Amino acid sequence: MLKYSKALGLIVFVFLFAMCNQKSKSETEKETILKGSLDITVDETVKQIVDDQVAVFEGTYYDAKITVKPKSEAEVINDLLNQKAKVVITTRNLTKEELARFDKSKINPRVTPFAQDAIAFISNKNNNDTLIALKSVIDFMQGKPDPKIKGLVFDNPNSSTVRYMKELAKVNAIPTNGVFSFKTNNEVIKFVSENDGMIGVVGVNWLYQPTPDMTETIKKINVLSVKGLNGTGYYSPTQNDLGEEKYPLARDLFIINCQGYSGLGMGFASFIAGDIGQRIVLKSGLLPYKTPGRKLKIRSEIIKDKE
Question: Would the keyword Chloroplast turn up in this protein's UniProt record (predicted)?
C-alpha cells in the first residue's frame, strides 16, 4: 500500500510538473513577430493609413490581432513614456529628453520611419482663392490679423498639427481670438465646409482617405497650395511635391517599438517598412519612405498575338 501511494504521488508530481512546463511554454509562445495580439496607440491625424496597414497585415498573418487606438500626439507620447503603450505611431521622432527617460529605465526604443505625410490647409469651396502663404498663417498665429483669414481651425489642442504650427510660429500657446479647435480632423473638415473664410489645419491623410460618411463633405472644400517661408512658388501636399521636397509642411511618420523583445511590434514594423507596406503607403497618396521597386520585362522585339 505504501509503495502504491509513493507511485501515485510520483505520477501526480510528474503530471503537475509537465502541466507547469506546458503552461510556461504556451505563455512564451503566445506572441511572436507574426502571432499574438497587440495594441498600437496612433496619432489620430494618420489613423487612416495605419488602419490600411493593419487590415493587410492581419489578412496575411491570420494569427495576428492588432488593435488601433487613436489619440492626440500628447496622449500618444505620454502613454509611451509612462509605459502604458509599448508600440506607437507618431509624426515625429523622440526628443533627447524623451530618449534619456527611456535610457534610465534601461529601455531601447526601436524607431522605424515608414512614410511622409503633410499638414494641409483647407478652405470652403466658395473661396475662389486656393493659394495661401505660410507666413500669413504664422502671422495670424502670432496675433496679427490677416484680411484673407477669418479664423484658423485645428483638430485638437494637444494634436501634432497644433504642436507643429506652434513650433513654426514660435509661440507657446495658440491665440484665444480667431483660432478654434475641435476633437477630430473630420470635425474640422465639416466645419470648414459649412463656413466661408475659415482655414482648416488637418492631416492630409484624412483628405486622401476620407471615411465613407465624409466623402460628400470633402467635395465641399479646397485643399490650398502653400508658399513656403523662403520660396516663391505655391505647392500642394501631393506625392510629387513631397517627393521633390517642395511642399513646406511635410513631416515623417514613425513607428516606435518599446516592447523589448521580438514580438508582434517588431513584425508589424518590419511589415510597414517592407515592400508590401510601402506599396500601401504609395497607394494611400502619402510618400513611402522607400520607393517600392518595379520589375520591367524588356524584349528585343514585339510579339504579336496569334489570331
Answer: no
Tell me if 169 sits within 8 A of 134, measured CB to CB. no
Distance CA(231)–CA(247), nearest Å, equals: 10
**pLDDT, averaged across the chain:** 87
**Rounded distance between C-alpha atoms, residue 273 and residue 199, angstroms:** 34
Q: Which three cell numbers stand for residue 17?
A: 510538473
- Please give the Cα distance from 271 to 278 (Å, whole number): 9
Phi and psi dihedrals of 18, rounded to 5?
A: -65, -40
CA distances from 194 to 41, 152, 220 (A): 31, 14, 8
181 forms bridges with which residues in the sheet?
A: 154
Handedness of CA 217, 76, 92, 277 (dihedral sign): negative
* Alpha carbons within 13 A on the beta-carbon side of 192: 38
Q: Is 87 within 8 Å of 38 (Cβ atoms)? A: yes
- How many residues does this entry show for the chain? 307
C-beta of residue 45 within 8 angstroms of C-beta of residue 159: yes
CA distance 200 to 151: 8
Question: pLDDT tens digit string along 253-292?
Answer: 999 999 989 999 999 999 999 999 999 999 999 999 997 6
Q: How far apart are CA 200 and CA 215, in angstroms?
A: 17
- Residue 79: partners with Cβ closer than 8 Å, 6 or more residues away: 41, 71, 85, 88
Q: How far apart are the C-alpha atoms of 171 and 141, rounded to whole Å?
A: 8
46 beta partners: none
Nearest to 254 by CA among 126, 98, 124: 98
Which residue is it, cell 508590401?
Answer: 276
The string of DSSP codes covering 17-29 is: HHHHHHHHHHHHT
Is the pTM above the cut of 0.70?
yes
pLDDT of residue 306: 52
